[in-house]
Amino acid sequence: MSIMIVHLVDYDSKIPNLALMRVSSYHKSLGDEVRYSKGKKASIALDVDKIYISCIYKKNKKHVNTFIDSLNNEYSDSPVEIDVGGSGYDLKKVLSDEIESMKPDYSLYPDCDSSYGFSSRGCPRVCSFCIVRSNLTCHINFIFLIIPHFYPFSPKS
Q: Is 70 helix (H, G, I), strand (E, B) or coil?
């Protein structure tokens, strides 16, 4: 297998993007060259083999689609594979088990001095603006299993 040049675009995250850090680790483990850019005006060289774009906020989905269209126009002579994900783009898309199990590559965020992860996922609240309830199915039962002593009632009642 030949070495690929992979470019990661963190379109709109406010904190380090855990998924992109895992994608970076995966590709580096294969010996691929990984490049990174942050923000809506990402500059991507024409020599890349694959582009990953992460969009966290739903309000930016149409802007990401415009960005993808411009990339497709730029790469019209030699099409490049573009993989887009994130909670603001596609709630059903998940990383492969192999990528999900990778240790995050914090070198993408040299100014980051803390680690990120999930001790639990989901939320028992029903906020109208939030995507958590539509993204995770067993959220309340999961929380009860993890931290049942925080609730004064039984999950079966």
A: helix
CA distances from 3 to 29, 37, 71 (A): 11, 20, 22
Residues 112-132, mean pLDDT to the nearest whole number: 68
CATH architecture of 5-108: 3-Layer(aba) Sandwich (3.40)
Q: Are 140 and 154 in contact (CB under 8 A)?
A: no
CA distances from 31 to 40, 97, 100, 105 (A): 28, 19, 18, 14
Query: What span, in angstroms and rounded, lies between the C-alpha atoms of 46 and 13?
Result: 24
This prediction's pTM: 0.77
Q: 52-90: string of b/e by CB count within 10 Å (b at 16+)?
A: bbbbbbeebbeebeebeeebeeebeeeebebebbbbbbe
Domain residue ranges in the chain = 5-108, 118-157
- Kindly report which listed range (11-20, 97-106, 108-117, 121-130) carries the lowest average pLDDT score: 121-130
